């Protein structure tokens, strides 16, 4: 790939630098955030060649480096692994590596930078955002199809997230200040995908029902002894499944359940799966948004919501997404069953504060588990 002119923009307070072969510019640009001192350098497995290039450039600029490969370091930030003289963190990697680096930077109360190797997530800018992100086009074209599919899976699921924002505002009277609409046609390269995900990440305030379901799907895979897929892959599967369920649920206005559902049973199952990082946010029939109030408002906006759902081309997105894989998505036939998907959806409903939570609380999803 030919060298591209380096471009820089600011997302919130994070400088995003995009170009090609950026390892040559890292040391000079890092000076804007961290002039001198000890640098904790963490790189993901399989990136040693690029890590060596970056390390050489940083050493030439006088930085004192504390170097770890991700698998060697693990995810524990202790005084034994990270010396107290470290004053900044630099991560070379994708979502997993960035998460470890963010945790280290947070515990040491220092800044951090990220040299992104794959557009596979949208949590990079959440909470402790990096001071800098480097998007190297020549690096990203080497991504695996699974990483690209994970990134597109998250991007495509934003249409679903926009629907849940609409439901939250119209039916639950909860305004969500978010911008989840986008034009997929503008995403031409892995660099475009990375920048789009960073943009959404900078605006992300909460997890939607698909993200909660994705975490449950990952936990289920681990429990069954399978190698889990990337979270972005699960996100797309979850958003597609829930979107189809929403269309069926809203299209049958005569359906009524027997509230309340036995949420404690679902919590026990979630605990057994050891699902991490899910904050339960449930639809409570006994607060101001009680069952009959929601049912009344939902009946008023039902057609509007169905129209918005109809605007999500689920089947078209599925075709596009499957074809990102070398096997055209054939792996789906063996890695998760329809019954497992429905079970994960029901468990996600138990911890959802959106339409999925309402459907669960109404008792409608009881047979899914």
- Beta-strand percentage range: 5-15%
- Total helical segments: 16
Poorly predicted regions are none
User: Mind summarizing the main beta sheet?
Assistant: 7 strands, mixed
Major sheet strand order: 1-2-7-6-5-3-4
- Described by the principal axes of the CA atoms, the overall outline is elongated
**Share of helix, binned:** 40-55%
Q: How far apart are the first and last residues' alpha carbons, in Å?
A: 49 Å
The secondary-structure element order is EEHEHEHEHEEHHHHHHHHHHHH
Distinctive features:
single chain, 369 residues, alpha/beta, 7-stranded mixed β-sheet, 16 helices
Structure description:
It is elongated, with a radius of gyration of 22 Å. The protein has 16 helices and seven strands. Helices cover 48% and strands 11% of the residues. The chain starts with 6 loop residues before the first strand and ends in an 8-residue tail after the last helix. Strands 1-2-7-6-5-3-4 form a seven-stranded mixed sheet, sandwiched between helices. The model has no long low-confidence stretch (mean pLDDT 88). The protein has 369 residues and is an alpha/beta fold.
Brief sketch in words of this structure:
This protein is of the alpha/beta class and 369 residues long. It contains 16 helices and 7 strands.
């Amino acid at each position: 790939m030919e060298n591209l002119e380096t471009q820089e923009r600011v997302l919130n307070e994070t400088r995003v630098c995009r170009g090609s072969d950026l390892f040559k510019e890292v040391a000079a640009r890092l000076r804007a955030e961290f002039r001198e001192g000890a640098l904790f350098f963490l790189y993901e497995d399989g990136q040693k060649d690029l890590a060596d290039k970056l390390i050489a450039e940083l050493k030439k600029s006088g930085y004192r480096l504390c170097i770890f490969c991700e698998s060697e370091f693990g995810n524990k930030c202790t005084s034994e692994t990270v010396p107290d003289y470290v004053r900044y963190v630099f991560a070379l990697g994708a979502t997993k590596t960035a998460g470890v680096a963010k945790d280290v930077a947070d515990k040491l109360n220092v800044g951090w930078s990220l040299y992104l190797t794959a557009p596979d997530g949208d949590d990079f800018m959440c909470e402790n955002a990096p001071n800098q992100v480097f998007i190297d086009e020549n690096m990203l074209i080497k991504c695996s199809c699974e990483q690209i599919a994970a990134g597109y899976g998250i991007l495509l699921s934003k249409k679903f997230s926009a629907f849940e924002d609409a439901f939250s505002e119209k039916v639950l009277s909860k305004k969500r200040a978010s911008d989840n609409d986008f034009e997929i046609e503008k995403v031409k390269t892995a660099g475009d995908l990375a920048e789009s995900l960073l943009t959404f990440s900078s605006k992300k305030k909460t997890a939607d029902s698909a993200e909660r379901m994705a975490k449950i799907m990952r936990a289920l895979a681990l429990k069954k002894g399978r190698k889990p897929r990337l979270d972005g892959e699960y996100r797309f599967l979850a958003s597609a499944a829930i979107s189809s369920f929403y269309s069926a649920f809203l299209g049958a206005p005569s359906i009524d359940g027997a509230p309340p559902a036995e949420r404690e049973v679902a919590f026990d199952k979630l605990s057994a799966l050891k699902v991490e990082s899910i904050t339960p946010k449930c639809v409570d029939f006994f607060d101001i948004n009680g069952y009959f109030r929601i049912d009344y408002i939902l009946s008023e906006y039902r057609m509007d919501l169905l129209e918005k759902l109809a605007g999500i081309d689920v089947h078209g997105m599925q075709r596009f997404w499957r074809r990102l894989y070398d096997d055209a998505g054939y792996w789906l036939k063996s890695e998760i069953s329809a019954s497992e998907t429905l079970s994960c959806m029901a468990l996600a409903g138990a911890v959802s504060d959106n339409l999925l939570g309402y459907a669960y609380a109404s008792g409608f999803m009881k047979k899914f588990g």
